[in-house]
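User: Show me a protein chain along with its predicted structure.
Assistant: Here is one chain, sequence first, then structure tokens.
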Amino acid sequence: MSDFRDLRISVIGAGMGGLACALAFAKKGFKHVDVYETASNLGFVGAGIQLAPNMARVLDRWGCWDGIFAEATNIRSSSIREGASNRELVHVEMPDITEKYGYPHCTGHRASLAGGLYEGCKKEPAITFHFSTSLAGVTSFGPGKTVFTAQPRNGEPYEVETDILLGADGIKSVVRTDLLKGLNITADVEDTGQAAYRIMLTRAEMEHDPDLLELLDADCALRWIGEKRHIVAYPISNKTIYNLSTCQPDVNFAAATNATYTTRGSKPQMLKVYGDFHPTVLKMLNMVPEGEVCEWRLRSHRELDSWVLGTGTLVGDACHPTLPHLSQGAAMAIEDAAVLAEVVSKAPGGGSDKEALSKALKVYELLRKERTTYMVNLAASSARTLHLGDGKAKEERDRQFAAAKKGEPIPDKWASPEVQHMIYSYDCVKDAQEKFDELYATLTGETNGHANGHVNGLANGVTA
């Protein structure tokens, strides 16, 4: 029998999902993991990110959680406030997250998470990075050879034959385009109608204002909500930075003539969008230097009919991009990676049987697709609730917020203990280990196309 550890694993993209895939396969014992990344290096940028227990559980298995946790803030409560008045709609204490789920709910800098994954990868001799190298296209996903064309920035294109091809190349995924073409499926990227400003304020900028310093020094994640808009804020980087992420109607990108996803924003426009928010919020927005306002377009695509073709599959934003309202985008990609390494290592024949490898990837889809689709829909639904304008629906939402103080369900799904339990208690690796044989047995010789339905880890009573 062949040894699965000798399989050639090719990862396209070195974002969160790509780094996680490389590390997951190396930690599982695979000896040949190649990562192809368009950028010339991994100069990590970005803003804050929430590090939930289900993510921490996977990172700890890989040995890189402690370093990330050392720079993080342990969030012990959340506060949902009315944007205009700063009136608190509900305050949710979260003192026992570690006790319940084994890991805390933290906030950190994206660079800390990506850097922790990358440092973990660099310690693994099995992983080779190919920077300044993009994917020109996939020639074949099998059932014979899996072949793609790599394009170095300053060199000639060359063909690569691999055993497993993982498309972790994000919302603009070339792997997805070619994979869906092979399945005769279309799924164009769609506008969500939403955009986001991402802002980071330093302690030096905030420490002279007692009200702002109180926000920075708290172990609390805040959300200010208003009609069609909200702002999420929390401390990161050992409370040296206060991170604010907004969500508002997409105006600038919708008027653009190209497909750009980021743009230099206008500070006056940003202040106008949130002009009716509380002075505390406007004080922080006013601190952003003119010329340093950046706006991100939030994009998605409809649920894909399949993630698998031959021995190729998709990861993270390439197959289930999500709005950020549950703070689970990176966590889902990291879980994808862990499940992929698990199922490929369990493929009958040790990797010598291409059909068995394809079926193993289909098990990955069965384990992940329904759950991630549910989470994507839940995030979108939560945003619709938060963004209500004046009327009966908003009155009912605010009644539910008031009732939440007495133990009723919370309309903001991120802060809901019921939703937190469904997400945080889930162990994706354990699920894959326990269900692989059962799910593999349900697959016939047809391994491309629709997967059998499978529900995993979804809590009763939690609806989108």
